[in-house]
Amino acid sequence: MNKFFKNNDTKSALEAQYEAQKIAFAPIIFQVARSMRDLGVLEALYKNKTGLTLEELTSKIELSKYSIQVLLETSLSADIIKIEDEKYFITKTGQFLLKDEMTKVNMNYNHYVNYLGLYDLDEALKNNKAEGLKRIDENNETIYPALSTLPQKIKKSWFEFDHFYSDNGFPHAIKIVLQNSPKTILDIGGNTGKFSKAVIDNSTDTKVTIVDLPQQVALAKENTLAEKYQERISFIEQNILDHSKAIPSGFDIIWLSQFLDCFDEENIIKLLKRVKESMGEDSRLYIMEPLWDKQRFETSAYCIINTSPYFTAMANGYSKMFNYEDLQEYINKAGLQIEKEIHNIGICQSIIICK
Ligand SMILES: C[S@@+](CC[C@H](N)C(=O)[O-])C[C@H]1O[C@@H](n2cnc3c(N)ncnc32)[C@H](O)[C@@H]1O
């Protein structure tokens, strides 16, 4: 068993009631914290280490005294600011909201991608359909074909979220992947081509083939116009969920990064079986996923676990983030064998190497 969330149910009744109110008011706290950040109040407090009065803040921010007071009082209740001698100061939590990259990326993703659609979570859970997706895109059943055409701010925050968690692991992951000098890599779900480009940048002759949906392949092509990429990256448009189609074969390494978590158990196992069929004796499958029970810190486990409801309401209605045992079970059921596992790559990733 993992070590996280062992302090659950250790609070007094009074403390527990307070915790319950924090949950009941979470959407309000969230939006106020975001407005504090986006409307410049946190920045003003951050720059003025000796604190600011309400009047001083009102003269610096283009909001009414009323609006600033509403923001400040909720922020006070949420430990985002503190008050001493009628002056307001930013707290450590406030500083994380303003300056910490992970917090910024998570907050933007939750505001732009998830906030409206999570209203439809009940229906999504009942129907196993991304019922919230219609709030940001009316044309698709899952978020993936919609990614390239989502409104700019939504698209930007989705990609920043996705890239923050995987890019962070790429420098270490690249070393692991290139360790035995593979000649060919198949990057399934290659997205904007970030990993494939990094492979080219860090090797002399490894060739990469990106497989993704047509909309993503178009984006990846746009991102790989430089000659060195053109020579060594190729593309295949393929809906990987079409199980009647074989996975391209003959690759030394098949790379699945934050890809399997897009699918449900049945499709993951079918997909892994097809990957197995495409592999020779010497091919290896590298799966990179953030596994919540393999994290160093509970904060990471918290972020990963709470990405799952996005999959339910917004992405597809049926997938989630894995814990280690689940992923291990899918790999075994597909007839693959775990050869090696490396955890704590970047801020939250694990790589499971299978043969
Ligand atoms: C969460 S992103 C991961 C991207 C990248 N591998 C990374 O680590 O950042 C999942 C990728 O899988 C692709 N994808 C989702 N469903 C797919 C399908 N049915 N067939 C092919 N690609 C798919 C998406 O378009 C997206 O590029």
Automatic annotation (TrEMBL):
Residue span, O-methyltransferase C-terminal domain: 183-319
Source taxon at top rank: Bacteria
Entry-linked Pfam families: Dimerisation2-like_dom (PF21212), Methyltransf_2 (PF00891)
Keyword Repeat: no
SUPFAM superfamilies, A to Z: S-adenosyl-L-methionine-dependent methyltransferases, Winged helix' DNA-binding domain
GO BP, sorted A to Z: methylation
PROSITE patterns: SAM_OMT_II
Entry keyword S-adenosyl-L-methionine: yes
Gene3D superfamilies xrefs: 1.20.58.1390, Vaccinia Virus protein VP39, Winged helix-like DNA-binding domain superfamily/Winged helix DNA-binding domain
Molecular function in Gene Ontology: O-methyltransferase activity
Domain BVU-1015-like N-terminal dimerisation-like: 17-88
InterPro entries attached to this UniProt entry: BVU_1015-like_N, COMT-like, COMT_C, SAM-dependent_MTases_sf, WH-like_DNA-bd_sf, WH_DNA-bd_sf
Keywords: Methyltransferase, S-adenosyl-L-methionine, Transferase
Name the record gives this protein: SAM-dependent methyltransferase
Organism: Halarcobacter bivalviorum
Lineage of the organism: Bacteria, Pseudomonadati, Campylobacterota, Epsilonproteobacteria, Campylobacterales
